[in-house]
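Design request, tokens follow.
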């Protein structure tokens, strides 16, 4: 990847000398920032007038333009004092992922004596002191003491910035490999690691590297020490391994080789509570931990996933240029990657994503089941779903159409797949988190338990003979009625998914921006859809989409259809648990006086658990001796 290396420091720190030597060594162009001042600035400086920030703004923007122009052709070296972080931000604007900083640092006396040893070069001490007064130490620079000999400074820069990788991928499973290729395709110098297990996993990284031309510059490792050593500091290592204890074991394996301020990014589907623990544990070791949801499957990881990082903001800002570059882009070409919040909020949001994903998948399965029962074959069902794209398009709708059309010989492949749904646990965690937070994510639970019901295949076959399906009447449902029922349930699904995230954000003080979450889910992730596009704007006005007039109108418009579809499915013994739960949930959440008073009375009757009264605003607890 082409890079611009900015060499910064106060006057007299040797920027130009080192810059020219490095440019010669790397055979790339050198530019002295001072050659790009405007005539006005040159005049002011010649008169001994200090430049103000306005004078500097134009100059720094000119250097940023120079860097951008150079990057279209080659890497380059630019020297510039860049004493304040705001100056550095202007210089690296829009090219953060292609920018490296070298800070030549020294004490006032070191530099003052050095300057005044030079013939015909005098700098008043107060001018040098004024530079030290505004100098802000850079957080992301390679800092080198100017007492080193120039050739050793050059050697250090080459070792640290040029001959080493800037990002490490740890774990070359399906997602890990796709991410490596994505980083490499975006021009990053990466190191790749996969463990060595005799006879099971050997030379994985090496063989993977040789398979793809975009990895020709990547470094491959199966030794952890060499892998870590190959990375520029502060090191950025993305763990792409299965969630669970494995992460903790790997952290222990890595810790002895890491340096203070290195960053570990967990890109797996880890549990948000574990992420919080790991964040705190590593913080005590001086290591940053960024729990990051990554969504989009193998294709998404390769071409641009949706990325949900969280943890400390400083660490995120260090990895932001990398993650935002490889992320999918939304319709405004902004990265589908945003800092979600502190602790494990990123993994919580990813877990919420998977909850919504389970429901979307279950709803499509139920729709297919209804259409098949109405006598249509899979190609005809695919044709029906094709017509839904104009109003209900989504990634999952698109892949379901492909799935329905996939043949093996003359047969539909999907009809040969065993109807037992597996899961890796994310929907399970979402349901548990909902229960722990007291949030009625009833569709997510319904979709999860529908998978569990499917798992009891033998029992389903056995019990089928005991309970014959009774077809009450021919299914009399139009495609548009089924579509409206499907859309109704999807809106309830998204309401529940975002409510869960909102409730968690309130409880844990994560301050999650729901509109931003919807935005990063408009591309790259599994639940991307036109509905999600709508939610980006809606969440700018509310955290509860059931209060949004557009969605109120849609739900009221779709309600007759979902009631008809669900009732006909019940009458025809077609199992549609999640579609049915959608209308049941809306009825429940919109009933002002519910039957829970009976529950309260029962609890008080047998357990004296007391109850509150509608006619007692004090909310006092009451008990009755019922018998
Ligand atoms: C994604 C997916 C992915 C998920 C697999 C398996 O966002 O890319 O959600 O993270 O782990 O699809 O999920 P289940 O095995 O739980 O269905």
């Amino acid at each position: 990847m082409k890079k611009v290396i900015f060499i910064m420091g106060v006057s007299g720190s040797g920027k130009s000398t080192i810059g020219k030597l490095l440019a010669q060594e790397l055979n790339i162009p050198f530019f002295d920032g001072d050659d790009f001042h405007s005539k006005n600035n040159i005049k002011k400086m010649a008169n001994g007038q200090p430049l103000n920030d306005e004078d500097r703004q134009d100059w720094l923007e000119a250097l940023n333009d120079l860097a951008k122009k150079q990057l279209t052709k080659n890497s380059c070296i630019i020297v510039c004092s860049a004493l304040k972080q705001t100056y550095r931000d202007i210089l690296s604007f829009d090219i953060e992922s292609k920018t490296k900083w070298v800070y030549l640092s020294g004490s006032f006396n070191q530099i003052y004596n050095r300057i005044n040893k030079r013939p015909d070069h005098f700098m008043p001490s107060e001018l040098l002191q004024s530079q030290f007064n505004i100098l802000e130490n850079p957080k992301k620079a390679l800092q080198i003491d100017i007492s080193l000999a120039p050739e050793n400074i050059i050697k250090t820069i080459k070792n640290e910035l040029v001959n080493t990788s800037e990002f490490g991928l740890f774990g070359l499973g399906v997602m890990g490999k796709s991410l490596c290729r994505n980083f490499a395709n975006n021009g990053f110098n990466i190191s790749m690691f996969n463990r060595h297990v005799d006879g099971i996993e050997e030379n994985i990284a090496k063989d993977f590297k040789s398979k793809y031309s975009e990895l020709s510059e990547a470094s491959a490792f199966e030794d952890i020490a060499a892998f870590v050593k190959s990375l520029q500091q502060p090191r950025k290592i993305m763990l792409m391994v299965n969630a669970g204890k494995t992460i903790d074991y790997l952290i222990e394996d890595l810790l002895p080789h890491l340096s203070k301020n290195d960053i570990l990014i967990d890109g797996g589907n880890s549990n948000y509570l574990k992420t919080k623990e790991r964040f705190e544990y590593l913080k005590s070791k001086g290591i940053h931990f960024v729990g990051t949801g990554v969504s989009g499957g193998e294709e998404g990881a390769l071409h641009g996933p949706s990325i949900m990082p969280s943890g400390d903001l400083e660490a995120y800002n260090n990895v932001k240029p990398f993650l935002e570059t490889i992320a999918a882009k939304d319709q405004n070409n902004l990265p589908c990657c945003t800092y979600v919040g502190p602790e494990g909020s990123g993994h919580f949001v990813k877990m919420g994503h998977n909850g919504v994903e389970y429901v979307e998948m279950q709803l499509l399965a139920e729709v297919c089941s209804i259409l098949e029962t109405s006598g249509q074959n899979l190609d005809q069902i695919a044709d029906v779903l094709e017509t839904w794209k104009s109003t209900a398009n989504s990634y999952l709708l698109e892949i379901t159409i492909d799935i329905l059309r996939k043949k093996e010989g003359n047969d539909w492949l999907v009809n040969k797949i065993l109807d037992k749904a597996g899961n890796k646990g994310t929907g399970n965690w979402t349901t548990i988190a909902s229960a722990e937070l007291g949030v009625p994510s009833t569709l997510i639970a319904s979709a999860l338990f529908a998978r569990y019901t499917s798992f009891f295949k033998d029992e389903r076959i056995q019990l089928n003979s005991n309970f014959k399906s009774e077809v009450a009447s021919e299914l009399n449902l139009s495609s548009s009625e089924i579509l409206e029922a499907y859309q109704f349930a999807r809106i309830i699904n998204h309401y529940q998914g975002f409510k869960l995230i909102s409730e968690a954000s309130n409880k844990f003080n994560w301050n999650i921006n729901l509109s931003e979450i919807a935005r990063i889910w408009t591309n790259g992730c599994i639940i991307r859809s036109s509905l999600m596009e709508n939610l980006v704007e809606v969440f700018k006005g509310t955290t509860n989409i059931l209060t949004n007039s557009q969605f109120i109108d849609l739900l009221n418009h779709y309600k007759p259809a979902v009631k008809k579809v669900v009732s006909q499915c019940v009458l025809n013994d077609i199992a549609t648990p999640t579609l049915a739960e959608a209308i049941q949930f809306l009825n429940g959440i919109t009933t002002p006086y519910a039957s829970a008073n009976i529950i309260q009375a029962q609890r008080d009757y047998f357990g004296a658990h007391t109850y509150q009264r509608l006619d007692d605003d004090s909310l006092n607890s009451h008990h009755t001796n019922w018998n």
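Comment from the thread starter after seeing the answer: thanks! The chain has four domains: 4-162, 167-343, 351-589, 593-627.
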